[in-house]
Amino acid sequence: MNIINRPNPNACMTPPKRKTPQLQQQQLLQQQQQLLQQQQLLQQQQQQLQQQQQQQQQQKQLQQQLQQQQQQQQQQQQQ
């Protein structure tokens, strides 16, 4: 038997340290702040996505306009 792989018998003997209510509150507050930050980040990302979509739509419209202009030019040349 390898001694290294044996679980430490003293590991489970120590009782888990009880957190004081104050500590728990602080941790909860921190978590809340982190969540708020994450939400803000997500909102920013959503806004960026919306902007990108709008830009894409604008580009499509521009392309369509260009195509129309080209078609008109071709028609004029044919006449």
From TrEMBL:
Region (Disordered), start-end ranges: 1-25
Coiled-coil ranges (or none): 25-79
Keywords: Coiled coil
Domain of life: Eukaryota
Keyword hit for Coiled coil: yes
Protein name as it appears in the record: Uncharacterized protein
Organism: Eimeria brunetti
